[in-house]
Amino acid sequence: MSAPAQTAPASEHHEGPVPLPKPLKRKIKDGIVALSLANLCFANAWFTILYDTDRGYFNQLPIQASSTLALLINIFWLAATVWLAMRVWRRFQNRLLHFALHMAFLVLLLVPVDFVRHQIFHIGDYQVVVFFQRPVVIFCSVVLLALVVWQHRRVARVATVLVVVVSPLALLTLAKIGLLSLGVMHLKQADYEPVLPPPAPVREGQPRVLWIIFDCMDYRVAFENRPDGVQLPEFDRLRGESLFCVNACSPHSSTISSMPALISGQRISDVGIANASDLNVRVADTGADTTWQKLPSVFAEARALGANTALVGWYHPYDRILGKGLNYCAWYPFPMFEPARAKTIATAMRREIGCIPWSWHIRRIYIGVCRDSLRESLSLVTNNVYGLTLLHLPPPHTPGIYLPEKDQFTFWGMSRTVGYLGNLALADRELGQMRRAMETSGQWDKTWLIISADHSLGSSDLFGSHDTRVPFIVKPPGANEPITYSPKINTILTHDLILAILRGEITSQRELVPWLDEHGKPLPTTSVGTQE
């Protein structure tokens, strides 16, 4: 009997997709983690570039292909670096290497934590410093750090899961970059460059007014209760030859509201962003809703009187708002609103990388703004072409960047109290530089000088109590006597004072006091807006 024929084994039949090889799945998973982590590390950059919650009002440079392409390159090179590090981690089973890579991974996660701290919860650097100076916090931090070092594998595993959970955010970032690059999506931003009219010939005998606003300069801290060790020789010298008000308050408690009120001479009760080139405002005296561009402007009125006008400032887009009222304008964005934009890809990449150590980066930008605005100011204070010049200068506004004892800038952090006092000395230094430049050029004794602030220090309770008063100093041309003016006034009258000087209604120091007595407006400072 012959053996039964053997049948061939049935071939296996797989239903559904073929599973990916395990090594490939690991590579893909590592890629997701790397891309998500890279996106989180550049959160400070893409948040200020890709989202237009302020409608572009606080931005000088529009979003260009250089910024979005630089952001794309930065995210991908960091993702590639992280992915390679993860491949090394999987390939080599070395405890010391694993520990180093785990700790590097956890340190990188501090970047998005810092982003949440300042962009979402608006917790300042000085608040963090004060918090971590508490003995209990120090002890708990040391214990927590020890636990992380001890259990670094488990901590890194949990952190990896969290990074994967937020990985769709990376896809959203890349998608928005792509849509912007293709022109499918557009951000709200200024779409034109204002063209300012050229200066007119200077008429003989025309008064010259230099109006300097030092941002956030507090009268009580600077003059009345000046802390020990703080020296302001230039302000003290100027006080000895000027009319000095001891009870002046600003129109509002924030820059966004105070500067429109000072320039227009109109009391403002409410303010909001209209578009990239204007603010919605409500006039307090009439309740009328209008825009800043439609309000009167001391510059337009000065030009109608035959005076050329110039402005150097920061925070507000002055050239876009004041338009034809100015013959010259240079302004600088508030550092936190434009930390990453640039005109070239290389510069944009550097600025976006700089956003990773956020606080240092902001201070470096702020130092640049102070230097650049002073350089522009020095060129204007010696130029007699302009009959009215406004200098809205950053110091003593925080963050602290100046070390008076060394006469040098620093981007290292310091407490808000120390930082403010240092920046106060910086304001004094800038005043001295401008004075010497004007004396050398012969313009000091030919110029009306008005010095004040847009608002006092909002957190002046750091120095004992809150005070709404600001400096208000007026020095007419020529030699003058020191005058202390005690009645309460609101510096919103600066608009009318400047026009009275340009019209020739006030020609000397002795006419100042009667004019202030008649036109003084002792109105309380109003808290409008949240931006200093």
Structure characterization notes:
With 532 residues, the protein is an alpha/beta fold. The chain contains 19 helices and 15 strands. It has helices at residues 22-41, 43-50, 65-91, 95-108, 110-120, 125-132, 135-150, 152-165, 168-182, 219-224, 233-239, 255-264, 298-304, 318-322, 345-354, 358-381, 416-441, 494-502, 512-519; strands spanning 209-214, 243-245, 248-249, 268-275, 278-283, 289-291, 309-314, 328-332, 388-393, 402-403, 408-409, 448-452, 472-475, 483-485, 489-490. The protein has an eight-stranded mixed beta sheet, with helices on both faces. A three-stranded antiparallel beta sheet has the order 4-5-6, with helices on one face. It is elongated, with a radius of gyration of 30 Å. It starts with 21 loop residues before the first helix and ends in a 13-residue tail after the last helix. The model is unreliable at 1-12 (pLDDT under 50).
Portion in strands = 5-15%
Strands ordered across the widest β-sheet: 8-7-9-1-12-13-2-14
Which stretches of 5+ consecutive residues score pLDDT under 50?
1-12
Which oligomerization state do the chains in this entry correspond to? single chain
Whole-number radius of gyration? 30 Å
Q: How many β-strands, per DSSP?
A: 15
Give the class from helix and strand content and strand pairing. Answer: alpha/beta
Number of helices: 19
Percent range of helical residues? 40-55%
Q: Could you tell me how far the N terminus lies from the C terminus, measured between alpha carbons in angstroms?
A: 105 Å
Average per-residue pLDDT, rounded, comes to: 91
Largest sheet: 8 strands, mixed
Dominant shape: elongated
